[in-house]
Amino acid sequence: MNAETPIPHRARRPAAPLAGTIAVPGDKSISHRALMFAGLAIGETRITGLLEGEDVLRTAAAMRALGAEVARLDDGAWLVAGPGLGALRSPDDVLDMGNSGTAARLLCGILASHDIFAVMTGDASLRRRPMRRVIEPLAATGAGFAARPGGRLPLAVTGAAEPLPLSYRLPVASAQVKSALLLAGLNARGVTEIEEPEPTRDHSENMLRHFGASIDIHTQGTGRLIRLRGQPELRAADIVVPGDPSSAAFPIVAALLIPGSRITIEGVGLNKLRTGLFATLREMGADITVINAREAAGEKVGDLIVAASALRGVDVPADRAPSMIDEYPILAIACAFARGPSRLRGLAELRVKESDRLAATTDMLRANGASVAIEGDDLVIVGGANRLGGGLVTTQMDHRLAMSALVLGLAADAPVTIDDARFIDTSFPGFIPLMRSLGADIAAEGAPA
Ligand SMILES: O=C(O)C1=C[C@@H](OP(=O)(O)O)[C@@H](O)[C@H](O)C1
Ligand SMILES: C=C(OP(=O)(O)O)C(=O)O
After folding, report:
1. Does the structural domain 28-240 have CATH classification 2.130.10.10?
2. Which of 92, 179, 324, 393 is deepest in the core (most CB within 10 A)?
3. In this structure, which ligand is nearest to the CA of 134?
4. Residues forming beta bridges with residue 48, ordered by sequence position
């Protein structure tokens, strides 16, 4: 974040239901990958719908520092050219990945497998997050890593001149770790094998195919075995980035909770490894309809119609977590308004996001009158409280907490204030004006409504 001063905001229940048609910004996961894979391909890739959020702009800057040409055109599309696999150069300065775990971890895979030296850091939130999960497996390519104690940023990488292919079974369900290893495997001679015991978002695999790599995926028990042949000739291939389902989650839950609302969200990504929230909300009684289902650049897309619904509590199994890992704070808001208790299971990974989201979601709900507990790795929410809202939420440099708390304020009996709205720009620039265009009452604290 550039501006130094926090910008508090307040959300209150609007006088009228939410209504209208919107599109949410491009998918964050696909946007990072589009810039990285395009920089490793031969030729010029045109990317339409790229998310222009702070996190993705960090990836764009890093790819430039490694020698790629990355430019925004007047029509809003982005052009990325080369330098191509194996041809990256050492950056002149430290790579600052800001708030973005995806940018930092995926880039480690690229750096480890090129004959370069680089130093990487991030903001205070990212410097607290674990990097050993990528450092350890990537060291087997022959790369050298030196990191702060605990495997934290800043870190320095001396990439392998002749990277070795990897064979690795993921100990945690993480698309970031999987993708870092696939990126490293691209420049290794031979076949890289990754086993994931639980399927995670497969945007890297889809995009690798799109760029012409040879990749096989076999179902194995509940998980997958992925085999990537190294040193393919990646050819530039245009990309249309779908709307981010993780961003759509916020207007969706707001529309479900504000009586009488009915909204349409166009062009939302519907990859089934990302849509666990939609399945869960439907189990709770949500009225969400998909129309115009179609495909763009190897990804499923559709328009969503969402109508206000009376929700009931839900029990979400742990094996659904990878398909909705970023959506638990906003799901917890829906559960607080639902009739009956909810149990969201197996959320250990939430402890290592931009904040400890298990603790922070609990604090957010308690500060606003909801009854909630952490039991082991589960979040248990009582639901159906008489009066919610009236609290101040500390957002802890976490965009998803900030947006969840504002949605809580839109549906609650009393307004909700957040201490700082700046981090929303990491994944959802324009969130507040877009919500206001639907009729939401959100304003900077102290500003006239
Ligand atoms: O691969 C990705 O683009 C992402 C994977 C997830 O992280 P993990 O792989 O750490 O679960 C998710 O939380 C993050 O927002 C984006
Ligand atoms: C966890 C997230 O992102 P990242 O890991 O890229 O910081 C997120 O967007 O919720």
Report:
1. no
2. 179
3. 1
4. 240
